[in-house]
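Appendix B. One record, verbatim.
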Amino acid sequence: KLKKTIPYLPDDRKKKYVNDYHLSNYDASVLTSDKPVSDYFDAVIKSDKTLKEFSKIVVNWLTSELFSLLNEKNIEINNSPITPENLGRLVKLIKEDIISGKIAKEVLVEMFNTKLDPEKIIEQKGLKQVTDTSEIEIIVDEVLKENQKMVDQYLSGKDKLLGFFVGQSMKKSKGKANPKILNEILKIKL
């Protein structure tokens, strides 16, 4: 009878995190050091079955980004303005390449301040990531045309300049271009 009334113990949770979610011992320890934190993490993972695959990313967003905002405002996790479901939705949007990690940080802060869900914020602020290759090609063409001297240097062997072109293209797209697609297009064009 007593065994049934005992809540899920930290060591059991830690084993589950390491074995089922393939988290590192360190991450599992961080999550299980405080019951409200592990409850929050469990709620995020339960909010969407596919998040189990992304548990490492969920841990990163929880322990670095969200913890940072909570500490800044001196708020306990169980009073977080960002619900576990909304944090889960944000991670999914990153994994589905709808927004970049950089934009996600901006969205997280907005979620924290407004309690809105990430999709609403992305829609209101027009933050959806650009994945249309023709749109990215136009941006890349403009950047290459504006920086012909750098293109010549790149072609003469200074391949470290690729970062410069990526940076200029991201600036022109206001950080919305999908970095993977952008890199591929740049390499082809160069």
